[in-house]
Amino acid sequence: MSFKENFLWGGAIAANQAEGAYNVGGKGLSVADLKTVGGNGKERMFTPTIEEGVYYPSHNAIRFYDNYKEDIALFAEMGFKVLRTSINWSRIFPQGDEELPNEEGLKFYDNVIDELLAHGIEPLITLSHFEIPVGLMEKYNGFADRRTIDFYVNYATTVFERYKEKVKYWITFNELNFGTMSHGELTVLGIHPHGKYPLHKMPNDEKTRFQALHHTFIASAKAVIAGHKINPEFKIGCMIAHLSMYPLTPAPADVLQCKEYDLLVNKFVGDVQVKGEYPPLIKRYFESKGIEIQMEAGDLELLKSGVVDMYKFSYYMTLCVTTQNGAEASMGNLMGGAKNPYLESSEWGWQVDPTGLTFTLLDLYDRYQVPLMVVENGLGADDKVEENGAIHDDYRIEYMRKHVLAMKEAVEKGVDLIGYTMWGPIDLISAGTGEMKKRYGFIYVDMNNDGTGSLKRSKKDSFDWYKKVIASNGEEL
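^ 6-phospho-beta-glucosidase, sequence as received from the core. Prediction below:
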C-alpha cells in the first residue's frame, strides 16, 4: 500500500504569520497584532496596546497580502494539491461583534481563493488560527463570555456562505488543545491578561480557562452544524497540536504520569470534537480541581450533533515525561519535556522523531477511526544564503524524507491518511518568538528579525525535492 491517488500534498501558512497589512482594508486588530518579537534571549511579549517604537512582526509579516499571486505561483510550481491557510477573523469582522462583515476583507480572500483554484490548488481554510479580534478580548474577555460563541458562529457562517462553492476543507480552531495549558488563555481563547506579559507566563486561571474552552467546543459544534447545512459536502475538521509523549523510564510513576498528561493535553479535546463528549477521566480531573463547567440546556446534545468529519493535527517532535527531579529538559511546540537520550534535536531544541509520527498516526486512528490529515510538520532552521544565492538545506530534506516515510509506514499499517500540508512552505514569522531566523520554508524570504530586508523570494534546494515528492505521490524521496 502507498499514498492514495488523490492524496493532498501541500503546505500550511497562517494569516497572522504571513499576510501583514494589519491595518489595511478595514481590518481590525487581532490578538496576534499585540505580540512583540522575541528570540536571542528576549521573551516575546503581549502588550495591551501598540507601543511606540516596538516591533510587532505580524504588522508586516512577509506581506503575503501583496505578494499572494507570486507565492501561490511558486506553490503551484511545486505541484501543490492543497494549501492550508487561515482567514483573519478581524479582517472580516474588525471588532468581532459586528452584525455585518467588512466587504473589503471578504474580497481579499475572494482573490486568494480564486488564485488557488486557478492553479488547481484546493484551499483548506482555518477559521481561527490565533487571530481572535482584540475587540472581543477587550469587551467580552474572549471565549470566557458565552456571547462570543454567537459572534464566532456569525463569522463562520458568513465565510461558509461566501465560499460554499469554492472551499471544501475547513478547520474550526487551530491547535485548540493549547487551551488546556496555562499559556493558551490569550492566544487560543482570547482571555484578557490585563497587563503586559511574556507569552509563556500568562496569568493562570484554570476555572476561567476551561470554561472558555467549553465555549469554544460549543462554537465549533455550532459551526460544524451550520456548515453542513450550507453545504453537506463540506469536510470540517478539528486541529490538535499533538504533543506525542513517552515515559522517560519504565518506572510505573513515569508511565502513569505520561498517560495522564496525554489524556489532558491531547485526547481530551480530540474526544470532545470527534466523539462529541467529555471523557470520564477529564470529568474526574475537574472534580479534583474544584472546576465546575457551566453548561446550558442542550450543550451536550450540540457537542454530539456537531462532531467533526476528520481529525487534523500538527506534529513536530515527541516529549518525554518523568516524575524524577533533575532530568535534562528539551524544548517543544509551546510545551517542553524531559530530553530523550535516543533522539537528536533541532537548533531550537525540538527533538526530531519520525518514528513518533508513525506511532501518533496509529494511536489516533485506533482511537477515532476517522480520516486523518497531518496539517503541520517541518523543521525550523537558520538557513544560510551562499554568495551565489543558493540555499543548501539538506538537513530539511532529510527531516522531511524521514517523516514522509513515517507516514507511508502508517498508511501501510491501515491508517486512513488523506493529506499532508507541511509547515510552512515559505518562510514565515515564528508563532512562538516572532523571529524570521527560524525558517521552515522551501522558499526563502529575504527578511531579518527586525523586519528589514527586500522580501525577495528564492528557492532552496528543498523546493525541487518536494516537487519530486509530490509528482511521484511520495514514491521518489
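The CA atoms of residues 14 and 282 lie 31 Å apart.
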